[in-house]
Amino acid sequence: MSDGLLNVAANGYDTVKKAVDESATKKEKALSSVIKIESFRLSQGLKRGIRSAQPGGSDLKKLTAIARLKKGRFRSNLPFRGVVNSVRYDFDRLKNVAHIGWTSKTNSGLKRLMTRYQRGFETPVTEKKRKALTMLGMSLGKRSSLRKYFFIRKTTTKFDIPERPIVDPFYEKEKEAIRQNIARNFRLKMMGKRI
């Protein structure tokens, strides 16, 4: 009699294992899908934050007149507007993890530059740079109120570029929402609903 039970259990094992494997695969696909959806939402939010110069609600320091001058015209004093489109997300299928911001698909020079600007740095004022800035200042009209910033004193030996953190404040603001969204969307996905 115990052989019959054992055989029934052994015969049923393959069916149960197959159902468990299918369930695990379904859960894994649902989780991947939910992480991608949340990553897209976060990348769009980060782009909006950079455009408004308030990622995560914290204001970024405005650009100086020297940094704003480009091709003889002054651009917006909001930093990083030109790099907004390089913000994206990468999804690692093996680890089921997404990376958001300036990812592996971003140009390495831009990644290095953005890391540097987020931390802040100092740059030396060489004689060549001082002359170039003077020439730019002279090219502005005499009535320009920004002209005075291009004539650098001899005692100025460096420019301090302030730190402008982008990703960290944004993540701190969104941290709780990320957990809630993933949990809610995973439940919906497992119920077969569209997100």
Report on this model:
By secondary structure, this protein is mainly alpha-helical. The chain has one domain. It contains five helices and six strands; from the N terminus they run ααββββαβαβα. The strands form three sheets. A two-stranded antiparallel ribbon has the order 1-2. Strands 3-4 form a two-stranded antiparallel sheet. A hairpin with a 4-residue loop joins strand 3 and strand 4. Helix 1 packs antiparallel against helix 5. It is elongated, with a radius of gyration of 27 Å. The protein starts with a helix and ends in a 5-residue tail after the last helix. The N terminus is likely disordered.
Q: What class do helices, strands and sheet pairing give?
A: mainly alpha
The number of distinct β-strands equals 6
Topology as a string of helices (H) and strands (E): HHEEEEHEHEH
* Gross geometry: elongated
Count of discrete alpha- or pi-helical segments spanning 4 or more residues: 5
Note the main sheet.
2 strands, antiparallel
Poorly predicted sequence stretches spanning 5 or more consecutive residues: 1-10
Could you give the distance between the termini? 51 Å
Proportion of beta-strand residues: 5-15%
Q: Could you estimate the helical fraction of the residues in percent?
A: 40-55%
Radius of gyration over all CA atoms, rounded: 27 Å
Overall pLDDT score: 83
Read across the widest sheet, the strand sequence of neighbours is 1-2
Tally of discrete structural domains: 1
